[in-house]
Specification:
Layout lengths: L2 H12 L10 H4 L6 E3 L3 E9 L2 H12 L9 H10 L10 E9 H7 L6 E4 L20 E3 L7 E4 L2 H26 L9 H4 L8 E9 H11 L6 H17 L1 H12 L6 H11 L6 H4 L3 H12 L1
């Protein structure tokens, strides 16, 4: 972060406001703190609304007598999560400031149930900051998953790839600066010059989302199979959410992050196995891909 950004955050953290609205003590400690992610990125909480009690309050309004058998807030939240009730979780919202590489942002923005305002390279000049992976994070294409990584690159190949990433990013930015410069020339418009920038350059945005849709984002992006570069952002957000709504996060961790979903065919196969039958991929009625995923669930 720049000295100016750090000073702005320190000034914001130094302020305190009296309020009658509910606050979450755990979240208050996170407000305006920037948590580093990757080599130049970060997340920080700008604002939030609601807490665990906002979820249960909304649920009791919505479902009335049907929730009276659940005697406490934690139990009710677990019931709501277990039975896929979504609207009570929408009563909580969070607004984050995120700095991230453009290629991660393009993956992130596929989650369309949020409000986003991104730094504009039409009006402003992007900083000379690029994401360069650590050598340990360079990997070959997976041979079993078209979306994943395989074995790590090593030796001369890894060094060559890192050199190309640094050199190409630097060269593209040099040309970007040269194109927009008005020193002895008209200078190309910023909105056109930005097309030459690489996908590993950093951008920033404000991202506001309700808790229900945030949990959906985290379920996919904090998963071990998610791309590492977006997973580390999701994990940083998880640490914040855990302090903000501890009951809701514990239920989410139990039923979503740590839980599994089986198809009707998978349930049938599991019952056959528990009954002592030897079930194979051929007798399961599943495709090879389905069987591999099913066995991954069974064997852990």
């Amino acid at each position: 972060m720049t000295p100016e950004q750090k000073a702005e955050i320190e000034a914001a953290r130094a302020q305190s406001h009296q309020t009658r609205r509910a606050t979450a003590p755990g979240m208050e400690t996170h407000l305006y703190t920037a948590y580093p992610v990757l080599d130049h990125g970060f997340i920080r909480v700008i604002d939030y609304m609601g807490d665990d009690s906002a979820i249960t309050q909304a649920a009791r309004v919505s479902y009335g007598r049907g929730t009276k058998a659940v005697s406490n807030d934690e139990g009710l939240i677990r019931y709501l999560m277990r039975h896929w009730h979504s609207t009570p979780f929408e009563m909580c919202e969070i607004k984050l400031h995120v700095k991230l590489p453009v290629f991660v942002a393009r993956q992130w923005i596929r989650h369309r149930t949020a409000n986003v305002n991104e730094y504009s390279a039409r009006y402003s000049i992007l900083d000379r900051e690029f994401y360069i992976p650590a050598a340990d994070d360079l990997a070959a294409q997976s041979t079993v998953n078209n979306q994943g990584r395989g074995a790590a690159l090593s030796g001369e190949e890894a060094a060559r790839v890192l050199d190309w990433l640094r050199d190409d990013a630097t060269r593209a930015y040099d040309h970007y600066e040269a194109m927009i410069s008005q020193d002895g020339q008209q200078g190309l418009a910023r909105e056109l010059a930005r097309m030459n920038l690489p996908a590993n350059i950093y951008t920033q945005w404000y991202w506001k989302v309700d808790l229900h849709n945030l949990f959906h984002f985290l379920r996919l992006r904090a998963d071990a199979h998610a791309q590492m570069e977006i997973r580390v952002y999701a994990e940083a957000i998880c640490a914040v959410v855990k302090d903000w709504v501890p009951f809701a996060y514990a239920a989410f961790e139990d039923y979503r992050l740590g839980g599994v979903s089986l198809s009707a065919r998978g349930v049938e196969c599991l019952r056959r196995m528990l009954a002592g039958e030897e079930v194979t991929q051929e007798s399961s009625g599943m495709s090879k891909g389905e069987w591999r995923e099913f066995m991954g669930v069974i064997n852990g």
